[in-house]
Amino acid sequence: MKVEALLDYLRSERWPTIWCPGCGNGIVLKAFLQAVHELGLSKDKMAAVSGIGCSSRATGYIDFNTLHTLHGRAVAFATGVKLARPDFHVVVLGGDGDILAIGGNHFIHACRRNIDLTIIVFNNMIYGMTGGQVSPTTPVEKVASTAPFGNTEPPFDTVKVAIAAGATYVARATVYHYPLLVQYIKRALSHRGTAVVEAVTNCHTYYGRYNRIGDASQMIEYFKKNSVTLERAKNVSAEELKDKIIIGEFHVEDKPTFHDRYKKLVETISRKE
Ligand code: SF4
């Protein structure tokens, strides 16, 4: 695919982005646009919703129906959009802090309802926009501006939270594994129900610098070295998997969506009248 093919999906007047040079947010956004393009989805039938944070700025740069909303409320707004326009592909673009901390409650309940949303979690393991504070996915012992001697709180595993809450498509890749990321986002967009794709991405400005991993390219190299496929992880001890990023498709389930159940209820009530 030629990159020019994606220009039609951009609001070029809003570029350049505010993102630091080399930020992985650009890679994840491109993967999303490539997935939309390869699936041949109409951008007029797409809605992209975000909250607050570096990655949440993505909705300003793309030429879909977009909503840039309140901190942590992207999933709630997206739920409203999907109820109003069930014919739309509704996508949430947001960071680990926005979706799993401030918006954690909305996230688990969207998964529980199995409402037909695609939620792309840009997980850079830190709050980038506000200065590098600990987020719910910062690993133990890693340094952040609010944990200068190392984080003491165990992190959320986005994949496990999503599956436990009821999401029916759950996958994870890193920005190093770009083709995989495109593939998973395509499957998420094609899935009926709540689909969660965790995109592990680099905030070299804070996470990489505080933890002495290095610049953007060194962080991407770090993801390459520290990722393990789901298949391989099944034969590796828990000790060896410590601090590793497990990538793959973790859960695919065909189950009635919120709209399926709602439609059935309306039909039942109508028959009684
Ligand atoms: Fe990206 Fe981090 Fe810069 Fe934000 S602060 S744009 S997440 S590198």
Largest sheet, in brief, is:
8 strands, mixed
Rounded Rg: 18 Å
Query: What's the mean pLDDT score?
Result: 97
Strand-pairing-aware structural class: alpha/beta
Bound molecules: iron/sulfur cluster
- Helical content, roughly? 25-40%
Shape: globular
What distance separates the N and C termini? Answer: 54 Å
Write the layout of secondary structure elements.
Blueprint: H1 25-39, E1 46-50, H2 58-61, E2 65-68, H3 74-84, E3 89-95, H4 96-102, H5 104-113, E4 118-123, H6 158-165, E5 169-174, H7 178-190, E6 195-200, H8 204-210, H9 216-225, E7 227-229, H10 230-233, H11 238-241, E8 245-252, H12 258-272
Parallel strand pairs: 1-2, 1-3, 3-4, 4-6, 5-6, 7-8
Antiparallel strand pairs: 5-8
Helix pairs in contact: 1-7, 4-5, 5-6
This protein binds iron/sulfur cluster.
Iron/sulfur cluster (SF4) is lined by residues 19-20, 23, 25, 54, 124, 128-129, 203-206.
Features:
single chain; 273 residues; alpha/beta; eight-stranded mixed sheet; 12 helices; 40% helix; globular; binds iron/sulfur cluster
Describe the structure.
The longest helix has 15 residues, at 25-39. This protein is α/β, with parallel strands linked by helices. 40% of the residues lie in helices and 16% in strands. The protein has helices at 25-39, 58-61, 74-84, 96-102, 104-113, 158-165, 178-190, 204-210, 216-225, 230-233, 238-241, 258-272; strands at 46-50, 65-68, 89-95, 118-123, 169-174, 195-200, 227-229, 245-252. Helix 4 (96-102) packs across helix 5. Strands 2-1-3-4-6-5-8-7 form an eight-stranded mixed beta sheet, with helices on both faces. It has twelve helices and eight strands. It starts with 24 loop residues before the first helix and ends with a helix. Iron/sulfur cluster (SF4) binds at residues 19-20, 23, 25, 54, 124, 128-129, 203-206.
